[in-house]
Amino acid sequence: MATETTLPAFSEPLIDVVVQPSSPTRSSAPRRPAPSTPDVLTTIYNFPSMEPKGFAYYPANQLHLPLRRDLLHRAIVYEGDATRQGTASTKWRDDVHGGGRKIRPQKGMGKARLGDKKSPMLKGGGVAFGPHPRDFSTGLPRKIYDLAWRTALSYRYRRGQLVVLENGVEIEMNEPRWLAQIMTWNHLGQGDGGSLLVAKSLEENISQAFLGAEGHGRLKSEDDVDVKDLLKAGRVMIERRSLDTLLKKHSSDLNRKAPSAI
C-alpha cells in the first residue's frame, strides 16, 4: 500500500535553464575547388604536305565526349527541318477561275450529282487536301544542339578522323587533278570515303580545285558547316582557328558554375 512521503527541502530555488539554439554560421573552411577537366592532345598538320607542326590541348568535355546517337539524331532532324522551304502550294475550289453555277440538274439526267465546274472531281477544278505554304522548322534547345555539335567532333576525334590543320589553308595551283593526287596520297580522297575541309576563309585556288574534285572532298566555311556535314564525310579536316571558333560557339551548356558540396 502506498504511503505519503515528504519531499526533501532545497536551500536554493530551482532555476529553469533554457538553451537557445545557436545561429548558423558559415564555416571558415575554404570552398572545394571545381573539379579540373582533363585535356586531350591533338596534332597540328600542315596542308598539303600533311607534316606535323605542333600540338594543341583541348578539354575532354569538348573533344572526348561519349557517343550519343539520340542527340545526333535530334540535331540532324532539327537541321533538316530548318532547310525545308515549305513553298508547295495548290489551289482549292475557291481559288480557281470559274462561277458557281451548277453544271447539270440534280435529278433526271441519269448521272451522278455534280456541282459547279470548280469541283475537285473535274479537270481544271480545285485540288482537295493539297499542300499549302507552311513552316516545317522544329525547335531544339540550344544546350542540346551544342552538346550534339561537340559529340560529333568527339566522335571523329576518338576514331582518329579529325585532322587539325594550320591556319590559312591554301595550295599553289587551282588544278583539280593535283588536289586529287594529294588527297589520294594522304588517304583522304574518294577511296577512303572523302574528306570535309572546314576553313575560316575560302581561298581562290583551293576553292576552284575542290569544285573539280568533288568526289574526293568538299570545302566549306565555318559558318556553313553543320552536324550532318561532320558525320557524312570519311574524315574532317579543319583549321585550328575554325575549331576554336566552333567550340567556343557551341559551349552554352558549359557556361555554368560548378556545383559545390559546401
Question: How much of the polypeptide forms β-strand, as a percent range?
Answer: 5-15%
Let me know the number of strands: 6
- Can you give the helix content as a percent range? 25-40%
pLDDT below 50 for ≥5 consecutive residues: which ranges? 13-19, 258-262
Radius of gyration: 36 Å
- Strand arrangement within the widest β-sheet reads 2-1-3-6-4-5
In DSSP terms (H or I, runs of 4 or more residues), the helix count works out at: 7
Query: How far apart are the first and last residues' alpha carbons, in Å?
Result: 62 Å
Strand count, sense and barrel status of the largest sheet are:
6 strands, mixed
Structural class: alpha/beta
What does this molecule look like?
The chain has a 6-stranded mixed beta sheet. A hairpin with a 6-residue loop joins β1 and β2 (52-59). Mean pLDDT is 84; it is low at 13-19 and 258-262. It contains 7 helices and 6 strands. The relative contact order is 0.15. It is elongated. The two termini are 62 Å apart. Helices cover 27% and strands 13% of the residues. α2 (69-83) packs across α3 and α4 crosses α5. It is of the alpha/beta class and 262 residues long. The protein has helices spanning 60-63, 69-83, 142-158, 176-185, 204-212, 227-232, 240-249; strands at 39-45, 52-59, 162-165, 195-199, 217-221, 235-239.
Quick description:
With 262 residues, the protein is of the alpha/beta class. The protein contains seven helices and six strands, in the order ββαααβαβαβαβα. Helix content is 27%, strand content 13%.
Furnish the topology, listing elements before pairings:
Blueprint: E1 39-45, E2 52-59, H1 60-63, H2 69-83, H3 142-158, E3 162-165, H4 176-185, E4 195-199, H5 204-212, E5 217-221, H6 227-232, E6 235-239, H7 240-249
Parallel strand pairs: 1-3, 3-6, 4-5, 4-6
Antiparallel strand pairs: 1-2
Helix pairs in contact: 2-3, 4-5
